[in-house]
Amino acid sequence: MATSQGTIDHLLDTLSNPRVTARKMFGEYALYVDAKVTALVCDDQVFIKPSTADVSFREQCEAAPPYPGAKHYWLVPEDLIHDRDWLRRALESTAGTLPSPKQKVPRQ
To answer: How far, CA to CA in Å, does 100 sit from each of 4, 34, 95?
Structure first.
């Protein structure tokens, strides 16, 4: 089952942060903070990318793969998906520990 556009719209509306964007990928979505992939949204569930980010938010999540064969991410419980402050802190904390994306070299 693919993630619905309504779920992504709700997440972006809940976060209401211009630094957070979403991009559709293979029927699912990636959430970006400052152009860094910080989470995946698969089957209408949010999976935060593993990083060295603040461990306090991870205490409320469980490790789970976002899709079969994937490495484990932090699965956000349903009630915390609607907690704007918690979700924003978790995503921004994760983004702060990730390297900046590599600049793409234009083809000639």
So the answer is: 28, 8, 9
